[in-house]
Amino acid sequence: MKRMESTAPALPAVGQSLGHESGPLHVAGRATYIDDMLEIQGTLHAAFGMSTCAHGRITKLDLEPVRKAPGVVAVLTAKDIPGLNDVGPIIHDDPILADGLVQFYGQAMFLVVAETHEAARRAARKAIVEYETLPAFLTAAEAAAAESWVLPPVHMQRGPDTQAVLAAAPHRLSGRAAHGGQEHFYLEGQIAYARPGEQDSMHVYSSTQHPTEMQHAVAHMFGWHSHQVSVECRRMGGAFGGKESQSAQIACAAALAAWKTGRPVKLRLDRDDDMSITGKRHDFEFEWEVGFDATGQILGLKLLMASRCGFSADLSGPVNDRALCHFDNCYYLDSVDVRNLRCKTHTVSNTAFRGFGGPQGMFAIEYIIDDIARFLGVDPLDVRRVNFYGPSSGDARITTPYGTKIEDNVAPALVEELVASSDYRARRAAVAAFNASSPVVKRGIALTPLKFGISFNATMYNQAGSVVHVYADGTVMVTQGGTEMGQGLYTKIRQIVANEFGLPADAVRMAATDTSRVPNTSATAASSGTDLNGKASQDAALKIKARLAAFFAQQHGVAAESVVFADGKLISGDIQQAFGEVVIAAYRARVQLWDAGFYATPKIHWNKDTMQGKPFFYYAYGAACAEVAVDTLTGESSVLRVDILHDVGKSINPDIDIGQIEGGFIQGMGWLTSEELWFRPDGSQKGRNMTHAPSTYKIPAASDCPAILNVKLFDNANVEDSIHRSKAVGEPPLMLAFAVFFALRDACSAARGSAAPLNAPATAEAMLRAIGGLA
Amino acid sequence: MTQRPIQFWHRGRIVQASGLSPQRTVLQWLREDEHCVGTKEGCGEGDCGACTVVIGTRDDAAPGGVRLEAVNSCIQFLPTLDGKALFAIEDLATAEALHPVQQAMVEHHGSQCGFCTPGIVMSLWADYEKREAAPTRDEVNQCLSGNLCRCTGYRPIVDAARAAWDKPVVKIDRSPLRAALDELAALSSLEYEFAGQHFYAPRSLAELAQRCEALPGARILAGSTDVGLWVTKQLRELGNIIYLGAVAELKSIQREADALVIGAGVSLSDAFAALVTDEPAWTELAQRFASTPIRNAGTLGGNVANGSPIGDSMPGLIAVGTRIILQKGERVREMPLEDFYLAYQKTAREPGEFVRALRIPLRREGTHFRTWKVSKRMDQDISAVCAAIALSIDTAGVVTEARIAYGGMAATPKRAAQAEAALQGKLLDAATVRAAMQALAQDYQPLDDMRATAAYRMQVAQNLLWRWWLDHSGAGVLRAQEVTA
Predict the structure, then answer these.
(1) What are phi and psi of B172, to 5 degrees?
(2) Please, what are the domains in chain A?
(3) Same domain for B185 and B156?
(4) By 3-state DSSP, what share of chain B in percent is helix, strand and coil, each rounded to 5?
(5) Closest Cα to residue A487, out of A658, A314, A726?
(6) Fewer CB within 10 Å of terminal CB in chain A, N or C?
(7) Are residues B233 and B157 in the same domain?
(8) Residues 6+ apart with CB under 8 A from A485
(9) Is B5 helix (H, G, I), strand (E, B) or coil?
C-alpha cells in the first residue's frame, strides 16, 4: 500500500491522515451504538411477525396465542396505525405492517411488544396465519413477461437511429448477461429506539443514513407535523445504502409501539429477520445488440436493462435512473437505444446500495466491451481505449447519452498510468504463457476503468446545513446534517472546521446528527456527505471567522482582511493572540460566536422526464488491474494481485480515502464473486430467502483479499470548486471490482477456448458452468 | 453433588451467577446483565465474530498454565463458563493506555464503522497472547477467519496486527488467573437448575456415564457451535443439559501403536493439530473447517455425534477407517464410523449413551489420503461438497483398499460403494479413475440448494477423484490457491 504524501502544510488539519475520530472508542468497545445506550427505565422491546407466503391474501390472522405469550405487553397490526401505513420514500406503496395482502415471504404483518427482546421474538412466532395464495413472480424475467412493474418502463434514445446504425455496422454482436443482487450486511443490524415525549412528541434514536426522512415517515404514520418528531443518530455500524430508506419501517414500528404503550421501545432486528425483511441491491438482466468497427469502436447500441425491484417502488426509480446515467461508464456512445424495465416481483423491495444503480449500468457496458474484444480477438483494454470519451479540451465525443458534456475526463491518462505501474502488458503475456502449459489452473487478467457521477440525480437533494458553535472557552462543536456510518465523514468535517479556525482537530467535537438541531437534511448517500456537509460546515465557520477577525482587527487596529487563523492563534503581521483569548473577549463584547452554514451544489440541473441535463457536479475516476487464477476442476478461484489507481481529487484525508477505496473494492468483489442470494424457486416455501444469515450468505473474509494489493491516489485536484478540491469517494471504488470479475471471465474463457458466458456472482459453480465443465 | 451457582473468573474476581436460564448466552449475560456492551451481536450464530470473547482455561502445557482462546459468545451458554475465565473487550485497555493491538488498530485505520472492531481486537489479542513474534499475513488471515468486516477490506487490520509487535510487548500476568482457575477447579461438579431446567457439568467420566444413563433424554452438549443456534435462531427449549466440557478424561489425545484416540471433549483446534502432525493431508481442511473461534469451541466428537450431512470432519475420518467409541453406563462399544450414521440426523447412539472417543488409524505407508472441501468462500463456509479419498496401493500399482466418502452428497456422510468397487483390486491408471468417476453417479443423488445444484455437486465429486489422481501422479499446478502473481 502506498500513500500520497500530503503536500499542503499550509492547511494543517486538511490533507493529513488523521485517524477516525471514533477510532480509540471503536477498539476499546466504548463507541456507543443504539443498542449500547443505557436503557431508560420501563423500556420495552419489539419484534415483527413475518409472512410465510410470497404473495397472498391473509385469510386468518389469529394473534391470541401471541398476546398470551409470556412477557407480551401489546400486539399491534396495521389497524393500530393512526395515520399513513406507509414508508415508501417516493411512491406510497410500502406498508409498515401488511394489511390483508402480503407481497413477499418475510413481510412484516404485526408487531409484538414485550418486556424483553427474547420474549418478543418468541411470541412473534406463535401467530396462527392462513393465506389465500396468489401467483408470485420471483425474477425480473418472470415479472417482465407478465408486464408487472413498480414503475413504468423508461426509454432513452440518443443520436442517430440505432437500428439503422446497427444495420450498417461492419460488425454486430448480440448478447445477454446478468448479475445478482447484494445484501448490505452492515455489521450492526437495523435498530431504532423510540422515546415518547410530552405534547404528543417522539424522539427516535435511529440507525439511519436519513434522519429527516425518518422524521417525516414517523410523523406521517401518526398524522403529526414534523415538529413533533425528532430523530438522532450518532453513528451506525455500517449502512452502505441499506439504512437510507430501509430504516424507516424500523423507526416507525418502534415509534408506534412507544406511542401505543407510552413507554420507550427498542426494536432491534435479529440478523435473520433483518436479511429477510430489508431490501438489497437490485439485480439486473441485460440483453443487447451492438454494432462496431474493426477496432472495436462502438457505433450503435441497443440495450435492454431489466431490474428486479421487489414488491414496492422504494428507491427503484432513482436507482434505475442512475443505471441509465452510468451504462456509458468512460465510453462515448454515439447512437443508443435503451429500454429500462422496473420489474415488480414478489420478493423483498430492493433499495439503495453503494453505487445506487451505477455499478449495474456499468456492468452492462463492460460486459459488452469484453464481448467485442473476444469477438475481434484483441485485448479488451484496447477496445476500452478506442471507446473512451474524447479529451475535455475538445468538442468531439464528449457528450453523454443524458446530454452532459464531460469536462473533467482523466480516464485515458489515469488508465495509461495504471497500465505502466501495473506492468499490464508484460503480465498479460505471462498469463497467456502460463495458460498454454497449465491444463488445470488457468489465469486471467483485466484492467477496467470507472467514471462515476457525483451528486444526487434529483437536484433538490444537493443541499446541506450545519451549525457550528464556538463556546466561550474557545472549544468548537459541529452539528451537521450528514451521518457517520464508518466512512469518516465526522473526521473530515472536523478537519475542515479545525482547519478554518487554525485549531488542532481535537479542539473540535462532532455532535450527533439530530433533526432538532439541523433540519431538512438530505440522505447521507450518493457519496455526497463530505461534499455537501463539508461545504456547509465551512460556510458556518467562515461566518464566525469573519466576526472574530473583525473583532480582533478592531481590538488591535489592523485590517480585518489581514487576520489569519493558524496554530491556535489569530495573527496579523507581528500581532498574535491565542484563539481562546480572542473568543472570550469577543463573547464579553457580545459578538455572536456560533452560526449556521448552508450549501447548495452549483451548476446542476436535471429533467427527469426527458432524462437530459447535467445531474452531476463532477465525476470521480479510477481504474483497477486484477490477476486471478481459476481451478477448472471445481471453479474455485483466487485473486492474486490487484493494482488500483483512484481519483479522489485533492484528498482531505488520504488514509481515510484509501480505506474507502479498499473497502469499496472488496465489497464490490464480494458482490461479483461469492455473495449469492438464493430464493426458494418453488414448493411451499416459494420465495423464501434461504441466504438470510452469514452462514449462507458469504461476504469476503480476510483470506479472500488479494495477497498483493497496491493502492495509489491519482494526483488530480478537482476542476470544480468542491470542498478543498477533493472528490467524493464513498461509492466509486466499488466499481473497481469489475477488474476481478473480468479477469475471472478471462480465465474462464481461456479454459473454455471461447468467450465464457459468465454471470455474476462468479461463484465456483458459475465458473465451472461458464467454462463448460458442467452440463 | 449439590446445586451451586455458575462460577467463573471475570474482571479480576470470581463471579457467581444464578437465577438465570441455563440457555442464557454469554453475550446476553455480558450485554444485558452486566451492561458490558462493548461486545456486539452481529449475527447470533457464530458466523460474523462481532461477539468474540476470549476464554481462559487451566492448561499446564500453556504459558503460565493458562490457555487463552477466542470463541463466539453469542452461541456459548453461560453455564459452560463454569470453572473458566472470561475476557471481553473492556478488559484490554488500562485507564492510561490502549493495548498495543488496539493502539495499532487506531494508528492503521483498522476501524471504520467500528462495530466488528471489538470482536476483531479480541481475536487478535488471543493470538497476540499466544505468540512471541509478529504474525505473517497468512497467520493473521487464519486468526481472523471467523471475523467479518464489511468496511475496511481487511488490509489495514492485517497491517495493524503485525505492527502491534513494533510496540513494547504487553502481556497479562497469568499467575493470579491461574490461582483463580485452580480455586475454581477445586469446586464440586456443576449442578445448576433454573425454572425446572437442569444443567449438569460432570467432571469425571464415571459421573458423566452415570448422569447420561440416569437422564437418557437429556441434551448432551459439547462446543454448542450447532446447539447454540437451536436456541438463538430456532428459539428451542433444550430441556435438561449434560455438558461434556468439564470431563477431564474426554480432553485427552492418546497416541497408540496404530491409532490416535481423540476424546470427545477435545476441541477441533487440538484434534486437527494432532491429525495434521500425523497426516499432513489434513492441513487444508484443518484450516478451512469453520473458523478459528468455532474450532476453539467445537469438538471433533461433537461434529461426529451431530452427524450433519455437511459436517466436514466425517468424510475424512471415514476414509481413513475411524472407529467411534460409545459408552453407556459402564458398557463401552466401538463401531466403524460409517456404521454410526443410519439416516438423516439419525445415528446409532442409544438413549443414555454418549460418544466417548474416536479411534483414528495412523498414517500408513502405501495409503494415499486426501480430503478437500469446496464452498463459495475459502474460510468459514459450509461445504457444497467435501471429499475424502484414501486408496491403498501395492508395489504393483494395484488398489488393495479403496475408502471414499463424501459430505454434501447424501442425507448422511456416506461412503461411495460403487466408486470404491470400481477401484478395488484394479491396476490404478487414468482409465480406472475415470471408471470410478462414472460409478459415483450410482452412489449419490445430491440435492439442489442455496450452496450448489445437484449437478454441480456430482460433477465436482467426480472431478475431485480426478484431482486425487492428478495429485498422485504429480501433474503440475492443480489448485488456484497454489498460484502466486
Answers:
(1) -75, 155
(2) 44-134+192-277 (3.90.1170.50), 284-457+607-771 (3.30.365.10), 463-600 (3.30.365.10)
(3) no
(4) 35, 25, 40
(5) A658
(6) C
(7) no
(8) A186, A209, A235, A236, A238, A239, A240, A243, A524, B113
(9) coil
Same domain, B195 and B316: no
* Averaged pLDDT for residues B62-81: 98
Average pLDDT over residues B12-22: 97
Same domain, B216 and B104: no
Residue type, B72: N
Identify the H or E element spanning B295.
helix B292-297
Helix or strand run (H / E) with residue A158: strand A149-158
Q: Does B463 touch chain A (CB under 8 A)?
A: yes
- Last residue of one domain, picked from the residues B166, B198, B214: B166
Question: Of the residues B200, B219, B243, which one is the last residue of a structural domain?
Answer: B243
Mean pLDDT, residues A4-8 taken together: 36
Domain total in chain B: 4
Q: What spatial distance separates the first Cα and last Cα of chain B, rounded to whole Å?
A: 62
Facing A696 at nearest CB: one of B98, B157, B450? B450
What average pLDDT does chain B have? Answer: 97
State the Cα–Cα distance between residues A136 and A346, nearest whole angstrom: 6
Nearest CA-CA partner of A476 in A627, A366, A593? A593
For residues B178 and B162, membership in a common domain is answered with no
B214 lies in the same domain as B75 = yes
Residue B110 lies in a domain: yes
- Do B225 and B84 reside in the same domain of the chain? yes
Is residue A731 among the annotated active site residues?
Answer: yes
Residue B308 sits at the chain A interface (C-beta within 8 Å) = no
Q: Give a yes or no: residue B19 inside a domain.
A: yes
Task: Judge residue A167's burial from the number of C-beta atoms within 10 Å of its C-beta, 0-12 exposed, 13-18 middle, 19 or more buried.
Answer: exposed
CATH number at residue B271: 3.30.465.10
Render pLDDT for A559-590 as a digit per residue (tens, 0 to 9): 999 999 999 999 999 999 999 999 999 999 99
Of A631, A705, A764, the CB nearest to B154: A705
Distances (CA, A) of A525 to A92, A272, A404: 21, 25, 22
Interface predicted TM-score (ipTM) of this complex, two decimals: 0.97
Contact present, B242 and B200 (Cβ < 8 Å): yes
Report if residue B1 sits inside a domain.
Answer: no
How far is it, in rounded angstroms, from Cα A289 to Cα A285? 14
CATH code at position B431:
3.30.390.50
CATH number at residue B112: 1.10.150.120
A–B CB contacts, 8 A cutoff, strictly below? 294
Show the domain range for B111.
100-166
Of A480, A237, A597, the C-alpha closest to A492 is: A480
pLDDT of residue A394: 87
Predicted local distance difference test score (pLDDT) of residue A10: 43
Neighboring chain A residues of B41 at a CB cutoff of 8 Å = 35
- Please say whether the beta carbons of B390 and B405 come within 8 A: no
Q: Are the C-beta atoms of residues A606 and A458 closer than 8 Å to each other?
A: yes
Q: Which CATH number fits the domain that encloses residue B12?
A: 3.10.20.30
Interchain CB contact of A71 with B (< 8 Å):
no
Phi, psi of B199 (to 5 degrees): -130, 115
For residues A413 and B477, what is the distance between their CA atoms, to the nearest angstrom? 37
* Interface contact B114-A627, CB threshold 8 A: no
Closest C-alpha among A299, A355, A284, A354 to residue A325? A355
- Whether B109 sits inside 8 A of A640 (CB atoms) is no
For residue B470, what is the nearest residue in chain A, using CA coordinates?
A440
Question: From its phi and psi, is residue B35 left (phi > 0), alpha (psi between -120 and 50) or beta?
Answer: left
**Mean of the per-residue pLDDT values of chain A:** 96
Mean pLDDT of the B432-461 span: 97
* Residue A261 parent element (H or E): helix A247-261
* The C-alpha cell that represents B461 in the structure block: 465429486
B95 located within any domain: no
Question: Based on the domain organization, do B71 and B178 belong to the same domain?
Answer: yes
